[in-house]
């Protein structure tokens, strides 16, 4: 999320590598070509699982070269019996398979006003895959942790220097999570995505998948884990991926972006679609709520004046999105129309009506209208 990111999105659109990558990833929109940052086509979402080839890619640096022959995951830290795990070692620790939804904390950034820097994701920096791997807890049980351990830092093999704000030279992509979270079953060291080994862009050979948290915690190309007694203040949870939190008397302090906020998105109709008047039409979409599950989705077909409940087509599952639809009859009157949706989770949390600027350019879950036109399609 730096100025370079923003600048790169502009001229890159016409460049050669873009055409090549787009051709290799049908259905994905290139938001940045090098490193490859690709957006899913949310309007195409019809199934609970997102096919891996259509899953968004968010990478800050180029895919690191990893030689499986010498590769091992290293675990060190306060009170830890340092250990290295090869892929074979990890395979012996018991694999689980579970669906988890990942949303980038910047998903929807293009809707922010005024415009901000950072990748201009629309609705497609979100997807659900079935992840297979070892629970992080199983690894930490082998190495042990101090009674005073607070956080677990997940470190990727990818590296680079960011110019603005400047990093201390080349740094790895990393991110800590509270120890308490790390021990939960939704935190997995995944080797497989949708039944296949991870692809290079999704973190081969090993990535963390931190269910319920925004995507930045699911560190790809995981190479090292450090257990620490002190809170970690790395670049990716201070300068980047942090938001303001108001405390007593309005004091604002910066905290790392963590759990995903409840959010519903309309897949169909899509922005700018022309829908014929007085016609049966199924509106559909998905909603997710981080560590909670979605219990209600409402849709407004009149710009937010009135709301009606949508029907779910998949089950309520924590850490996962839920698909929904609403059978509608388009109005007889032609002209522009604003559609909105919103969800409530099983803890009763809903979405904010308006954007809160304390969130900086992350956690974008205020309802964004899908503006369509009721009229006859142009021939
Ligand atoms: N090592 C590493 N892990 C990473 C990143 C990265 O740049 N490097 N990007 C993070 C971010 S911001 C997101 S949203 C998710 C995206 O995962 P995906 O590319 O598999 O969709 O990966 C996370 N893990
Ligand atoms: Mo992200």
Bound molecules: the ligand Nc1nc2c(c(=O)[nH]1)N[C@H]1C(S)=C(S)[C@@H](COP(=O)(O)O)O[C@H]1N2, molybdenum atom
Helix content: under 10%
Largest sheet: 5 strands, mixed
Q: Radius of gyration over alpha carbons?
A: 21 Å
Q: Find the count of extended strands (DSSP E, 2+ residues).
A: 23
How many distinct helices? 5
What amount of the residues lies in strands? 35-45%
Measured between the Cα atoms of the first and last residue, the distance is 42 Å
Q: State the secondary-structure class.
A: mainly beta
The strands making up the biggest β-sheet line up spatially as 4-3-12-7-8
Key features of this structure:
disordered N terminus, mainly beta, single chain, binds molybdenum atom, 379 residues, binds the ligand Nc1nc2c(c(=O)[nH]1)N[C@H]1C(S)=C(S)[C@@H](COP(=O)(O)O)O[C@H]1N2
Care to describe what's here?
- The protein is mainly beta and 379 residues long.
- Helices cover 9% and strands 35% of the residues.
- It has 5 helices and 23 strands.
- It has helices at 3-12, 16-24, 87-91, 136-143, 179-182, and strands at 29-32, 37-39, 73-77, 83-85, 96-103, 126-135, 151-160, 171-178, 187-193, 196-197, 207-210, 222-228, 242-246, 252-256, 263-268, 274-275, 280-288, 294-300, 308-309, 311-312, 322-329, 335-345, 370-374.
- The strands form 6 sheets. A 5-stranded mixed beta sheet has the order 4-3-12-7-8.
- Strand 9 (187-193) and strand 10 form a beta hairpin.
- The longest helix is centred in the first third of the chain and has 10 residues, at 3-12.
- The protein is globular.
- The two termini are 42 Å apart.
- The structure holds the ligand Nc1nc2c(c(=O)[nH]1)N[C@H]1C(S)=C(S)[C@@H](COP(=O)(O)O)O[C@H]1N2 and molybdenum atom.
- The ligand Nc1nc2c(c(=O)[nH]1)N[C@H]1C(S)=C(S)[C@@H](COP(=O)(O)O)O[C@H]1N2 binds at residues 55-60, 102, 104, 156, 158, 173, 202, 215-216, 218-221.
């Amino acid at each position: 999320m730096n100025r370079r990111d923003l600048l790169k999105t502009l001229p890159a659109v016409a460049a050669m590598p873009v055409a090549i990558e787009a051709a290799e990833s049908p259905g994905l929109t290139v938001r940045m070509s090098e490193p490859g940052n690709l957006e899913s086509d949310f309007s195409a979402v019809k199934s609970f699982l997102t096919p891996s080839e259509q899953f968004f890619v968010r990478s800050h640096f180029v895919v690191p070269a990893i030689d499986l022959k010498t590769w091992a995951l290293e675990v060190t830290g306060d009170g830890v019996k340092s250990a290295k795990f090869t892929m074979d070692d990890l395979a012996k620790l018991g694999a689980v398979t579970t669906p988890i939804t990942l949303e980038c904390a910047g998903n929807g950034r293009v809707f922010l006003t005024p415009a901000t820097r950072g990748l201009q994701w629309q609705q497609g920096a979100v997807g659900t895959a079935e992840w297979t791997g070892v629970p992080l807890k199983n690894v930490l049980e082998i190495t042990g942790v101090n009674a005073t351990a607070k956080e677990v830092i997940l470190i990727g093999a990818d590296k680079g220097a960011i110019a603005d704000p400047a990093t201390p030279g080349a740094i790895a992509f990393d991110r800590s999570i509270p120890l308490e979270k790390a021990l939960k079953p939704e935190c997995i060291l995944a080797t497989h995505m949708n039944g296949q080994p991870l692809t290079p862009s999704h973190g081969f050979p090993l990535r963390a998948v931190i269910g319920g948290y925004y995507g930045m915690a699911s560190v790809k190309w995981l190479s090292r884990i450090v257990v620490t007694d002190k809170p970690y203040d790395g670049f990716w949870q201070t300068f980047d991926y942090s938001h303001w939190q108001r405390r007593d008397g309005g004091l604002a302090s910066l905290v790392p972006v963590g759990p995903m906020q409840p959010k519903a998105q309309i897949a169909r109709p899509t922005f700018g679609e022309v829908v014929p008047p007085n016609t049966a039409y199924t509106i559909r979409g998905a909603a997710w709520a981080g560590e909670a599950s979605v219990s209600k989705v409402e849709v407004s077909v009149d710009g937010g004046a009135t709301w009606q409940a949508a029907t779910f087509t998949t089950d309520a599952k924590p850490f996962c999105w839920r698909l929904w639809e609403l059978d509608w009859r388009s109005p007889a009157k032609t002209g522009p129309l604003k559609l909105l949706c919103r969800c409530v989770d099983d803890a009763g949390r809903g979405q904010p009506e308006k954007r809160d600027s304390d969130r900086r350019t992350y956690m974008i879950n205020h309802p964004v209208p899908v503006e369509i036109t009721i009229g006859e399609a142009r021939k």
